[in-house]
């Protein structure tokens, strides 16, 4: 008896494989080729487009994926601004979008159709403040991207800092494409806070820390999980030594206790990625793409019970299934979604690391 022809699931990807965020987007793009080619017994086709770290291009890519390729879901994009551009299209077209960058809380249809794989900024902010308090920090300087990523971090830090009795005495901004932050750095050095928090991602986040060290700043420097890639270490060299930041557990998968719920998924990603791209080529950003596929793979069988791929009904069923994800172990943490929480990660999704000897070292609690 002939088997029925099954509809193909199309997943669109818009990623920043070029531009200022390329050091993040390239491992994400590399990961796509490692993702499952079947889900729920159906063939999966990935259509990958480069948005060049440009929100306008990310929006165009998402529209193209929806209109030309009739995708059932979109993974993307790499940065907060490009992800915000993609979710606009998801909301307009009724297409689930799983971002690989943190985004501010959304409302209405933008919230309904968007899901986030990276740790929420609040989770990471509280981890940073905890280690700052333990280190005796009383005053903090801030220099962050002059965009949505910088702003969401600035707002997220205020409450935990106040609760810890730490004052933020200087706030400076810089662009992802800046080649100098001399003016901002001089103001931070003059204020002389106990520590400085750099809000950036990839190699552009090296600039403020390097500039601070060049001008003799001796205080502690903290970064965010946006710098958890080898290019940051390579470009920063000795100037980023000592930086402390929170990351997803997958970065140091082998050092996790066997009881950690993410260890298996983290090692699955690390082993698959490094088999192709070499030892120590792992990236937390590539893992966000891996986790997006885990979310989709978990949701697809449920959605297939209600509709066929390529239809609005399937996209809606897929969205609903993602929203009901419960205790799904992934490389960055454990996902439990709800109608009000489209990130679904908790304290299990973070560990603290320090740059030491040109690599990352796990900090003990």
What attributes characterize this protein structure?
6-stranded mixed β-sheet; Rossmann fold; 2 domains; 365 residues; alpha/beta; 4-stranded parallel β-sheet
Mean pLDDT: 95
Number of domains: 2
CATH topology title of the largest domain: Rossmann fold
Please tell me how large the radius of gyration is.
20 Å
- CATH first level of the largest domain: Alpha Beta
Using the 3D structure, state the CATH architecture of the largest domain. 3-Layer(aba) Sandwich
CATH superfamily of the largest domain: Response regulator
**Which word captures the global form?**
globular
Strand arrangement in the largest pleated sheet? 2-3-1-4-5-6
* Main β-sheet description: 6 strands, mixed
H/E element string?
EHEEHEHEHEHEHEHEHEHEHHHEEEE
Q: Span from first to last CA?
A: 61 Å
Strand content range: 15-25%
Structural class: alpha/beta
Number of strands: 15
Q: Count of DSSP helices?
A: 12
- Helix content percent band: 40-55%
- Low-confidence spans: 1-5
